[in-house]
């Protein structure tokens, strides 16, 4: 039996995607989290300077998700984030 835990995820999107593509990716991940758990909050931090360049980018668009799900879903979310071209970096932690 899977247990339900609370998670926090921060996703950094590529800044050169454009507003529509960024919104589409954000909706994709919101839907994925909602289908596999309970999406509590989505906090869009906006465009920020990175601490160090990633893939020759100096800025990124930051979004934070707080959600609850069973303990098998974060691995699938991480896999989907890594497959997505518009994501520079992501981190998922259990709270």
From TrEMBL:
Which GO terms of type biological process are on file?
A: translation
Tell me the domain of life: Bacteria
- Kindly indicate whether the keyword Iron belongs to this entry: no
Q: Which GO terms describe its cellular component?
A: cytoplasm; ribonucleoprotein complex; ribosome
The alphabetical list of record keywords is: Ribonucleoprotein, Ribosomal protein, RNA-binding, rRNA-binding
NCBIfam families associated with the record = S6
Q: What does this protein do?
A: Binds together with bS18 to 16S ribosomal RNA.
Q: What is this protein called?
A: Small ribosomal subunit protein bS6
The species this protein was found in: Ethanoligenens harbinense (strain DSM 18485 / JCM 12961 / CGMCC 1.5033 / YUAN-3)
């Amino acid at each position: 039996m899977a247990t339900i835990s609370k998670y926090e995820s921060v996703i950094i999107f590529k800044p050169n995607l454009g507003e529509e593509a960024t919104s589409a990716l954000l909706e994709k991940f919101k839907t994925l989290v909602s289908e596999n758990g309970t999406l509590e909050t989505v906090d869009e931090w906006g465009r920020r300077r990175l601490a160090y360049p990633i893939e020759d980018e100096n800025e990124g668009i930051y979004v934070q998700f707080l959600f609850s799900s069973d303990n098998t879903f974060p691995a699938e979310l991480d896999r989907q984030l890594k497959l997505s071209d518009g994501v520079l970096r992501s981190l998922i932690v259990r709270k």
